[in-house]
Write a structure and sequence with these properties.
seven-stranded antiparallel sheet; about 30% helix; about 180 residues
Length: about 180
């Protein structure tokens, strides 16, 4: 629930990011300082999800209101004020098409310095370059098919990947390095 702080600027946002069309849902709940830029938020989301900041990204406010590259330097608080409580859509890897829904869940105005921190989440983030949600689904099917001609190569590359594994401590260790 978003709280209202009459006349106060929030010091932190609690956000939830969900990978669109993932089944089961792949999501993270995390807290960020309110004064970060959208470019900084992109990097934090990458580390929260477990990706490596390899690809281009785009941000959309609500439905169809694209934020241009210059706007990513805008402070997220300004953007949130401009759009109210509409979700922010985050597209990572234009070729793969990893679309995420970013929702503001809560505001904090206690003035405490906030480092990015992950509170909770579910499921492992798909491997980088898996080809979007549909490519990821295909990869998981192929990893279960020993008759696939590329099965051994796929097992060698992705055999240690555990789709249901999420470890908040690992995510927070990555975020501490920022």
């Amino acid at each position: 629930m978003v709280q209202s702080f009459q006349g106060q600027r929030p010091s932190a946002y609690q956000l939830k990011i969900t990978l669109s069309d993932s089944v089961p849902d792949i999501w993270r709940r995390f807290v960020v300082p309110a004064d970060i830029t959208l470019a900084q938020l992109h990097v934090i989301m990458q580390h929260t999800l477990g990706w490596e900041v390899f690809h281009d990204y785009g941000l959309h406010l609500g439905v169809g209101l694209q934020i241009d590259a210059v706007s990513t330097e805008a402070r997220s608080a300004v953007v949130r004020a401009d759009v109210g409580h509409q979700p922010l859509y985050y597209l990572y890897d234009f070729k793969g098409g990893w679309l995420h829904r970013l929702e503001l869940e809560a505001l904090d105005a206690d003035g405490t310095d906030v480092c990015p921190v992950c509170l909770d989440g579910a499921e492992a983030c798909p491997p980088e370059n898996a080809g979007g949600v549909w490519g990821y689904d295909e990869l998981m099917d192929r990893l279960d098919a020993p008759s696939d001609p590329e099965y051994m190569m796929l097992i060698e590359k992705y055999g240690s990947f555990a789709p249901a594994k999420f470890d908040v401590a690992v995510v927070n260790a990555r975020l501490q390095k920022l």
